[in-house]
């Protein structure tokens, strides 16, 4: 399986990072080794002093597809989840300044939290899903899929132009504003609506 991530998909997050609004989705990949194992803590890597949390809605692909038209995209997933795209912000800034790829800052071991999934049929509207992240009991990020620049089905159409989507692939759909540095002993808890989707400890 592969992890396909979308950057700069919420205008408020683009603004907080002082980035330019893209004209098409920004895509990067994480290897399966980036997935944080279940019930394991997240260890801040020794190569970064500024790792940020980025909570995101996830989509898990359930059939193989290539060149998928947006009007058929809904047939390629039946679950929505929640996760964290951990980012070594200091390393990312250094790489961006040099015009280099982001993978060292985004795809290191443990950098992808994949929480629980909820059947798509349980949502009234895929394009109106509220989600949030709490750090030590305080809400630090809140988002809604209606605020995505590119909605889920549009992302699937776009991604499948370049990559064949396979069963089990996970799409990270982008993060809203409120990203911030994590510290040792933080407890990060993610929610879709009022439903807890994951809880992890930082070490």
Descriptors:
single chain; 203 residues; Fumarylacetoacetate hydrolase, domain 2; four-stranded antiparallel β-sheet; 4 helices; globular
Give the structure's gist in a few sentences:
The protein is α+β, with helices and mostly antiparallel strands.
How are the secondary structure elements laid out?
Layout: E1 3-7, H1 11-16, E2 26-30, E3 51-53, E4 55-61, E5 77-85, E6 87-88, H2 89-97, H3 103-106, E7 112-119, E8 130-135, E9 138-144, H4 152-162, E10 170-172, E11 180-181, E12 187-192, E13 195-201
Parallel strand pairs: 1-10
Antiparallel strand pairs: 1-2, 3-6, 3-11, 4-5, 4-10, 5-7, 8-9, 8-12, 12-13
Tally of DSSP β-strands: 13
| Strand order within the widest beta sheet | 2-1-10-4-5-7
| Name given to the CATH homologous superfamily | Fumarylacetoacetase-like, C-terminal domain
**CATH architectural category:** Alpha-Beta Complex
Poorly predicted residue ranges: none
From the spread of the alpha carbons, the general shape counts as globular
Q: What is the mean pLDDT? A: 95
User: What is the domain total for the residues?
Assistant: 1
Estimate percent helicity. 10-25%
Write structural notes for this entry.
It is a single chain. The protein is an alpha+beta fold and 203 residues long. The chain has one domain (3-201): Alpha-Beta Complex (Fumarylacetoacetate hydrolase, domain 2), CATH 3.90.850.10. 15% of the residues lie in helices and 34% in strands. The protein contains 4 helices and 13 strands. The chain has helices at residues 11-16, 89-97, 103-106, 152-162; strands at 3-7, 26-30, 51-53, 55-61, 77-85, 87-88, 112-119, 130-135, 138-144, 170-172, 180-181, 187-192, 195-201. The strands form 3 sheets. Strands 2-1-10-4-5-7 form a 6-stranded mixed β-sheet, with helices on one face. Strand 12 and strand 13 form a beta hairpin. The longest helix has 11 residues, at 152-162. The radius of gyration is 16 Å and the shape is globular. The two termini are 27 Å apart. The model has no long low-confidence stretch (mean pLDDT 95).
């Amino acid at each position: 399986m592969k992890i396909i991530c979308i950057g700069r998909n919420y205008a408020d997050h683009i603004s907080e990072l002082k980035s330019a609004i893209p004209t098409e989705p920004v895509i990067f990949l994480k290897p399966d080794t980036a997935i944080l194992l279940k019930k394991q803590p997240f260890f801040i890597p020794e190569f970064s002093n500024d790792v940020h949390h980025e909570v995101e809605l996830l989509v898990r692909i359930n059939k193989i597809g290539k060149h998928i038209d947006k009007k058929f995209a809904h047939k390629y997933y039946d679950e929505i989840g929640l996760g964290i795209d951990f980012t070594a912000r200091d390393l990312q800034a250094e790489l961006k300044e040099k015009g280099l790829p982001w993978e060292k800052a985004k795809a290191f071991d443990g950098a992808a939290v994949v929480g629980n999934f909820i059947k798509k049929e349980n949502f009234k509207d895929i394009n109106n899903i509220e989600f949030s992240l709490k750090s030590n009991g305080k809400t630090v990020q809140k988002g809604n899929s209606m605020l995505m620049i590119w909605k889920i089905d549009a992302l699937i159409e776009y991604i499948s132009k370049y990559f064949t989507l396979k069963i089990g692939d996970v799409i990270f759909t982008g993060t809203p504003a409120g990203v911030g540095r994590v510290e040792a002993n933080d407890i990060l808890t993610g929610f879709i609506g009022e439903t807890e989707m994951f809880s992890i400890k930082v070490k």
